[in-house]
Amino acid sequence: KEFALYNEFAIGSESEQYVLSTVGGHSGTLVDSFANHRGNKFTTKDVDNDKNSKNCASWFHGAWWYTPGCYTSNLNGMYKNVIDTTAMCWYGFASNFQGLKVSKMMIK
């Protein structure tokens, strides 16, 4: 099993639109495809907080801390065990847009 571990993780409040304020201390078997999402607000289909001209959550079928280019990780994408940009994926795992069978985000 592949994994990415982060020693630092914090999100902002509702009034801050759940900005991904801290993510760091990466280790694990996967490349760091999450830290560049730092500083981005959480975007959903009905609340477009990303800095892309399109609504990335609508385009990629899942809420996330989308970057101006949308993402390098998208653990709320669609479940598809194929190579597809709308799939739940982690850039750097197998093929860059290979759909994941499972993802877990655990906070301690």
UniProtKB/TrEMBL annotation:
PANTHER family in UniProt: FI21813P1-RELATED, FIBRINOGEN/TENASCIN/ANGIOPOEITIN
One term under GO cellular component: extracellular space
The organism's place on the tree of life at top rank: Eukaryota
SMART domains according to UniProt: FBG
Pfam families, alphabetized: Fibrinogen_C
Name of the featured protein: Fibrinogen C domain-containing protein 1-A
Domain Fibrinogen C-terminal: 1-108
